[in-house]
Amino acid sequence: MAAFSHRAATEADLPALRALMTRAIEELQRDFLTPDQVAASHQIMGLDTQLVQDRTYFMILAGDQLVGCGGWSWRATLFGGDDSIVPRQPLPLDPATDAARIRAMYVDPAHARRGIGKQIMALCEDAARAAGFARVELMATLAGLPLYQACGYAEIEAVEATSREGVIVPIIRMGKVL
User: Domain of 46: which CATH number?
Assistant: First the structure.
């Protein structure tokens, strides 16, 4: 496995993050969803700039090239981006009773299956643990399901997100004890 570096994303990184997310949704979801569902996924997924502002969003780099990104949150929103149809819930979570959120995980399709997703998961879980959380939850796409299962996440419930046009996209809420 190649060595990758990481750092927290900043507002200056937003264009590169959005471009990587678009490529990942378009290419990596293709084997799991219909073309209409892939198109609808852009309304459900995406960049939540609150994570960048909170400095809880990581970039994985191969040299200077962005090859993956993902973050965690101490806020109630479980999934969705700034432009998604999912309502924002910015209220803080209580580490004593709530699960931290793993959010917006994307890998550049040209770098998939090289351990980038596992590196992002480890960064996020370590940060959530350091913030006092004992559990984490996430919302998985079908494409991300194998990674999350390999990282020890268990299904909590299957969910159907519906686009503005009525296209249903299956997603799965998952959780893990840290």
Answer: 3.40.630.30
Cα separation, 121 vs 167, whole angstroms: 29
In angstroms, rounded to a whole number, what is the distance separating the alpha carbons of residues 57 and 7? 9
Q: How many folded domains does the chain comprise? A: 1
Reference 139, options 40, 55, 44; nearest CA is 44
Domain span at 161: 5-177
pLDDT 10s per residue in the chain (178 long)?
458 999 999 999 999 999 999 999 999 999 999 999 999 999 999 999 999 999 999 999 999 999 999 999 999 999 999 989 988 888 999 999 999 999 999 999 999 999 999 999 999 999 999 999 999 999 999 999 999 999 999 999 999 999 999 999 999 999 999 9
Distance, in Å, from the CA atom of 84 to the CA atom of 104, rounded to the nearest integer, reads: 12
Q: How far apart are CA 168 and CA 44, in angstroms?
A: 10
